[in-house]
Amino acid sequence: QVQLVESGGGLVQAGGSLRLSCAASGRTFSNYAMGWFRQAPGKEREFVASIRRDGGDTYYVNSVKGRFTISRDNAKNAVYLQMNSLKPEDTAGYYCNYLNPSSSFYYPKPLYDYWGQGTQVTVSS
Question: DSSP 3-state assignment of 99?
Fold first, then answer.
């Protein structure tokens, strides 16, 4: 059974930083690229960042490029998102997921329709 547990969100002032964590289980973690997604109130869930199975390549949407860093630890079945220089428009629930290997790494689809509870990030101006 797949489980995704996100943590590390919170309330932060603009310009601040947060580090999100995601603990994944139920699949062989190192066999899959992983991604972070976010969903703001009233908006659809959107892709934020992806990382290859071995962590050797990463990709970011333009709105977070240069501010966010995705990383993973295959020994711990965990993926992380370091968020710096946060902006109010980064306010959203953040979710991780395994990535569908049949989709593009640069515009990926989640492998599962299942989502964890997410972790809320709120950036005040």
Answer: strand
**What are the start-end ranges of the E strands in 1-125?**
3-7, 10-13, 18-25, 34-39, 46-51, 58-60, 68-73, 78-83, 92-98, 119-124
CA triple 11-12-14, angle to 5 deg: 140
b/e per residue 78-98 (b: at least 16 CB within 10 A): bbbbebeebeeebbbbbbbbb
Q: Is the pLDDT of residue 112 over 90?
A: no
Residue 83 pLDDT grade (very low, low, confident, very high; cuts 50, 70, 90): very high
Q: Which of 21, 9, 35 is nearest to 92 (CA)?
A: 9
